């Protein structure tokens, strides 16, 4: 088991990528703090994992002191903290025309500021365990889709924060900070989001090679599998790194001939 004996906080882990990560780290021997907003879903995750390996905390991550309460729960339950996975995020469509200050602040609070302050709350214990932080970003950090302005800004800021802390915290205290940028992932929320945009119920089964060369998009479990290296001791002294997890390169990609084909919309 690659994470045997470790205690890990995974934010936003009542569903989607976070849930997959939480289940995977437990498979690899870790104990996990489950966090999110959906209590019923969180209870289900704990039941699936087992109450001896998982504890649940339901709270908006942007609440004052929320990060400290997650850290306190880990310490009170298992007496140590080895890693944080900053996965909780809000994906919301916006452009320059409809992004106001309040909206942008809300996105930044969840996607950028909350991860920073959770790291700060956990730092004394991560120093003690020579632990690790893994931030879950997005390939939108590089520029983003035209209707994901605020979200893309927040993930770009998170990426810069990862590189900054990945250098400073490792030099000062031996705490590694890295990031993975998932591409298009088939989560529960993504399925519903695209249906709300007018796509057919089976949109993810009819994808163009332009968007999914494999004929499908990435599963949450595939992202979860990639996190284990960064959370384990196998990654050694590697810190301040950002890795894209998508089916095609973000730079220098050749556009396929069927690039005009999009998933079928409802009539």
Automatic annotation (TrEMBL):
Under the heading PROSITE patterns, the entry gives: ADH_SHORT
* Alphabetized Gene3D superfamilies for the sequence: NAD(P)-binding Rossmann-like Domain (3.40.50.720)
Membership in a protein family = Belongs to the short-chain dehydrogenases/reductases (SDR) family.
- PANTHER family in the record: EG:BACR7A4.14 PROTEIN-RELATED, ZGC:101858
Q: Which Pfam families match?
A: adh_short_C2
Organism domain of life: Bacteria
Protein name, entry field = NAD(P)-dependent dehydrogenase, short-chain alcohol dehydrogenase family
């Amino acid at each position: 088991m690659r994470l045997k004996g470790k205690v890990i906080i995974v934010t936003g882990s009542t569903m989607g990528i976070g849930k997959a990560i939480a289940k995977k780290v437990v498979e690899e021997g870790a104990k996990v703090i489950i966090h999110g907003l959906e209590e019923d879903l969180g209870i289900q995750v704990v039941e699936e994992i087992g109450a001896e390996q998982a504890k649940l905390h339901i709270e908006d991550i942007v609440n004052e002191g929320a990060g400290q309460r997650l850290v306190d729960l880990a310490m009170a339950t298992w007496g140590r903290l080895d890693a944080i996975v900053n996965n909780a995020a809000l994906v919301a469509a916006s452009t320059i025309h409809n992004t106001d200050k309040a909206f942008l602040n809300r996105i930044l609070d969840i996607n950028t500021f909350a991860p920073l302050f959770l790291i700060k709350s956990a730092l004394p214990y991560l120093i003690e365990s020579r632990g690790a932080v893994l931030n879950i970003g997005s390939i939108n950090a590089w520029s983003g889709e035209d209707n994901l302005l605020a979200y893309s800004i927040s993930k770009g800021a998170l990426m810069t924060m990862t590189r900054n802390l990945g250098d400073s915290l490792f030099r000062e205290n031996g705490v590694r900070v890295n990031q993975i940028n998932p591409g298009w992932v088939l989560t529960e929320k993504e399925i519903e989001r695209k249906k709300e945009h007018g796509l057919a119920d089976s949109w993810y089964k009819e994808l163009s090679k332009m968007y999914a060369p494999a004929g499908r998009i990435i599963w949450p479990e595939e992202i979860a599998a990639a996190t284990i290296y960064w959370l384990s001791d196998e990654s050694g002294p590697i810190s301040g790194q950002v890795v894209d997890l998508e089916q095609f390169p973000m730079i220098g990609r050749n556009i396929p001939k069927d690039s005009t084909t999009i998933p079928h919309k409802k009539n």
